[in-house]
Amino acid sequence: MTPMILFTLTTFESGQYVDFEKVVCITGDGNYSFIHLVDGQKLLVSKCLEQLELRLPPSQFLRIHKRYLINLRFVESIFPKQIKLTDGKVYAVARRRWPSVHSYFKQNSRR
């Protein structure tokens, strides 16, 4: 089976391919983003979060904050205005995004 390729990453060392399934979350920092992988690696790329978000399937990734984009497959629990991922990290949900994020999880927990 061919892995689903996220995009070619041009890191400071070389180009790499990243499988969607291995991305836990992406955190933005201005014109750079950190891609957090299942194995604990953290890759720095020179693309803003908005550019990366356009390349991701919206059914699998959710923007919860101007700085955070999470892979829904790695959500462990949801708290008021926070989401904990399976890597143990807790991410804040932006105040204006909270109603839609909360609604999303409420609807999908019934399935």
From TrEMBL:
GO terms for molecular function: DNA binding. PROSITE patterns: HTH_LYTTR. InterPro entries: LytTR_DNA-bd_dom. Residues 7-107 form the HTH LytTR-type domain. This is HTH LytTR-type domain-containing protein. It comes from Runella rosea.
